[in-house]
Amino acid sequence: MTGVLTARPRGTTDILPPRSEQWRTLEERFREVCRIWGYPEIILPLFEHAELFQRTVGEATDIVEKELYSFPDRGGRLLALRPEGTAPAARAYLENGLHKGPQPVKLSYVGPMFRYERPQAGRYRQHTQLGIEVFGAAEPAADAEVILVAVEVLRREGLEGLSVRLNSIGCAGCRPAYRETLRHWLHPLLPGLCADCRSRYGRNPLRTLDCKIERCRQALGQAPRTLDALCDECREHFQEVQGRLEGLGLPVTIHPDLVRGLDYYTRTVFEVMHDDLEPSLCGGGRYDGLVEVLGGPPTPAVGFGMGLERVLDLAKTQGRSTRPDLFLAAADEEARPRVFALAVEARRAGLATHFDFGGRSLKAQMKAASRLGVRFSVVLGQRELETGVAVLKNMDSGAESEAPIAGLAGAIGEQRGPTS
Ligand code: HAM
Question: Which of 247, 385, 410, 414 has its CA 20 to 30 A from that of 173?
Fold first, then answer.
């Protein structure tokens, strides 16, 4: 089998059981953390006007310049599959008038994002983010809370070896002067830098700081640091964020070269890393100017996005037990309609039930029952139909007990106990 009909597009994945179960469990746990920490869910469109991302994430970023899935629709509008959730959340915050209500507005989301990246381990063209955003909160406590939510989600997955990288990249007040200082410093080094960095030099020189190419990293090792150029307010803000986190015993490391790949950030930026994974599990930060860029009032905001697939790969999250409760087997043809009806009844009573659609011998049916790993099995034949009593077999212990067919679901429920 070859060709596009039997191959998914590069960078996408099919999520089969049991990974699909683990996936849903991780989502449920994330939603539970969001419930406890006060982040109700917002469900956003998968596509938006391309301009939304061009204006916020930034024209000169990889995400927009190289990776955006944008396309004209049949009405001639330029749309884009969303590459991230922050700009759509900000758009929705404004469009739905949430900025006029009580602040802050705290939201969470779960869903696919699309980036035309070079696929490799942990990097997909469709990936899924678990994200939260806080709109209308300038206080360092909001930054600290957002970082703590990220760590809480990861800890609940049993992940150890986590580290939080933190930096501040300043605000609209102090960043322009820093940008000029950096540009001035970079100028003599330009011929030795990669093509991307040379182009970043003109458009957004900060992005040169997190270039992954070794010769650029070496050349930029001594570059002026955003932290040394912060205004008093930004410095104080950053110290308080650190103080809040350290006060709770959360170790953070300051990474002066952390600038993140999206243009909307101001002040706090952070990433959560795992010892066993090179790319980040989670990235986020403050974006105090974004809502204003969209035409709204000045609105300080902060949030994160976490890569679900990356967390799942590391966490080995256990899915809910998928072990079925019951296999109903038919000893002869006459029993089949009764088995069918009984299976429907058992399922309606909440028991995960299997039976054979028809044709297979009793032996083959019992083989299927063991392959499925069911907890109980029942064989219905002429005798059972006549007496109305069946033998319920516990497939683990082999123990057998009699139960009236009419009360089978209850008898199994009692013996099974709560499912995990
Ligand atoms: P981001 O760092 O671009 O930030 O993405 C957030 C997370 O999504 C990453 O840490 C990573 O785990 C995951 N991720 C990103 N791209 C891929 C990919 N190609 N394959 C697999 N996983 C990926 C944002 O998107 C910001 N909107 C985060 C944010 C929210 N900042 C403030 N609020």
Answer: 247
In tens, the pLDDT along 146-161 reads 999 999 999 999 998 9
- Domains of the chain are 7-174+230-314 (3.30.930.10), 326-416 (3.40.50.800)
Between the CA of 84 and the centroid of ligand 1 the distance, in Å, is: 7
- CB of 272 shorter than 6 A to ligand 1: no
Note whether 86 and 305 are within 8 A (CB). Answer: yes
pTM over 0.90: yes
Tell me the per-residue pLDDT of 298-357, one tens digit each, with 9 for 90 and over.
999 999 999 999 999 998 766 666 789 999 999 999 999 999 999 999 999 999 999 999
SS (H, E, C) 330-369: ECCHHHHHHHHHHHHHHHHCCCCEEECCCCCCHHHHHHHH
272 alpha carbon to ligand 1 midpoint, in Å?
A: 11
271 CA distance to ligand 1 middle (Å): 10
